Structures are given as C-alpha cells and as structure tokens.
Amino acid sequence: MAPVTASPKASLHLADGLRSGDRAALARAITLIESRRADHQAQARDLVQELLPLTGSAMRVGITGSPGVGKSTTIDALGMALIAKGHKVAVLAVDPSSARTGGSILGDKTRMARLSAEDNAFIRPSPSSGTLGGVAAKTREAMLLCEAAGFDVVLVETVGIGQSETAVCDMTDFFLALMLPGAGDELQGIKKGLVELADMIAVNKADGDNLKRAKAAAAEYNAALHILAPRSEHWFPPVLTYSALTGDGIEALWEKILAHRTAMIACGDFETRRRQQQVKWMYTILEDRLHARLRSDPVIRAKVKQTEAAVANGRMTPAVAADTITALLER
Ligand SMILES: Nc1nc2c(ncn2[C@@H]2O[C@H](COP(=O)(O)OP(=O)(O)OP(=O)(O)O)[C@@H](O)[C@H]2O)c(=O)[nH]1
Ligand SMILES: [Mg+2]
C-alpha cells in the first residue's frame, strides 16, 4: 500500500481522486483515517468533512453471524448479484479482535474471490486496533468515504463478538443476522439481543441434505421472533432460507432489504434511525476522547492509577473516585 502522505496538498488530491471513484485514493484515505498520527487525524477529519455532502445515499447493510456461517460466501454472492444490477459495492468489517487474529477479512478475500476481482467492488479489512468504539468510528468514516467514492451499497460485516453487533447495527440501515440450519441446540444459543437487533434472519446453507433442517430452523426462529417486541411497528423481521453456495434465495434477500428501505422511508423511521445514529456516534467519539485523555496525559494517568488502587482496596468508593477523576478532566 502506498504510504500516507502528510501534506495538505496531497490530501486535496486524495479528495479529487476519491470523488472520481479511484479505489487507490479511497484505500489511501482510509489508511489516513486509521492512522494514529495527530496530523493524519486532523487531515482525515478535514477530508471527511469536505466529502460529507457526497455521503448518505448508499444502502448501508450490516451482516453478522457466527464464524463459519457463511458471511464471506454470502457477501461474495450478494455482491456479485448487486454488481450485475449496476451497483458499486463496498465491503467493510468491524472486528476489534482482528489485531489478535491478523484481520480475518483479508484471509477472507479468498472466500470473496469473485467479488475481489471486480472493478466495482472495494473490500477493506477491519481497522485492527483500538477499542470497539474506536474501531467502529473508523469503519463509519470509511463508510462515508466509500459513499463519496460512488459506492452505493456498503456491506459491513461483523463476526458478532461482544458488542460489535450493536456497533454495526448502529451504523447501518438494515441489519441481517445469518444463521446455520442447526437443530434445537443452535436455537438454544440464540442470543436474545441479536434477534432484537435483526431486521431479517436468514438461514444459510439451505442446500443438499441441509434443506429440511434449514426450513425447520427458520420456522423456529420465526416463532422466537413472534414472542419478542419488533424493533419497528412498521417492519416485522422476515426469516428466510437461502444458499450462498448455490445462490438460491440470494435475490430474495435483496428484495427484502429493498422492501424494508421503502417501508422505513415511507413511515419516517429511516430518517429517525439515521439521526439517532449520528447523535449516538457523537457520544461514542466523545467517550473515546475522554478515555484517550485519561490515558495520554501523564499527570492524569498517574492520578487515575492511584484512584483505581484506592477503589480496589476499598479505601475509596467508586462514586467518590469517579468524582475525583472527573474533576481532573475539568482542570
Ligand atoms: N453447503 C454450503 N456451504 C456453505 C454455504 N455458504 C458457505 N458455506 C461454506 O461454509 C464455510 C464457511 O464459509 P465462510 O463464508 O468462510 O463463513 P464466514 O461466516 O465468513 O466465516 P468466518 O469469516 O470464519 O467468520 C466454507 O467452507 C463455505 O464454503 C452454503 O450456502 N452452503
Ligand atoms: Mg468470513
């Protein structure tokens, strides 16, 4: 990858390259966003601000599912179908653990072999370091840059560890949960929170011997959804079966995503969800900044350590400690 340039003039070029849909410029701009250098961060902020008017019109779709459920295969199949329709597809990921695992989506490129060879596709691994909030914030900004570069569908993948599902749900218009055609034990493991976030549940691998089990699992998920309160009164999450391998049912997935968008725009929930996401994002950034200050200022850091020790050995209540630390930030 080309090095990130630090001069303001270079970042102007970057903006021009991005506007013209140049994928190399897009990749460099995302690297700028991910850089920890203060000057890069300042440039990245300006760049995103400058390109903001070109953002917001893409379809933002989050995709989650356990390891091996077929996320990459699905994205490959769906992405190819979308490109055939004339879309430009960007694939991003939120995987805060990727610092440890080395970035799963990169290895995944082999599972997205067709898509990664397409000019109208852009695949980028998860930012690999930082808190979930930090990783998610960078992915969000990367998403804006993809939109400015003309990608009109952005697929954001997460393997769904910890809170990453909420983070991806908070940056997308549609949240798709992929499931395996397991029997009862799979369903036992169904995370209530996840089902509450999902705009659709899709049981993958509905092919060959799995077909019957997939249908049975879908029926059970459907029943489970009916006992939970739907997220929007204007949308009841459908449960579908499909096969990423054969492509059977991929088209139906997309049709539901479109139907959801139409329904959400019509009732106003689309705008509401986007507005709430913006505000929540602001608070996420704010929290991250506050945490960063606690860590970066040596005086504060030392004092926080002392306070933490006092709480740990019971000399100070957590509430008094929190007051003490807040007071440090107000200096
Ligand atoms: N039979 C069948 N196998 C599938 C299907 N989709 C994916 N697989 C297989 O399931 C395995 C995992 O697929 P991936 O697409 O890598 O799954 P993933 O969710 O991206 O996995 P991680 O990136 O490890 O979280 C691969 O061997 C795929 O070939 C399908 O529709 N039917
Ligand atoms: Mg994968």
UniProtKB/TrEMBL annotation:
Signal peptide: none annotated. GO terms for molecular function: GTP binding; GTPase activity. One of its GO terms (cellular component) is cytoplasm. CDD domains: MMAA-like. Pfam families: MeaB. Belongs to the SIMIBI class G3E GTPase family. ArgK/MeaB subfamily. PANTHER family: METHYLMALONIC ACIDURIA TYPE A PROTEIN, MITOCHONDRIAL, METHYLMALONYL-COA MUTASE. This is LAO/AO transport system ATPase. It comes from Afipia broomeae ATCC 49717.
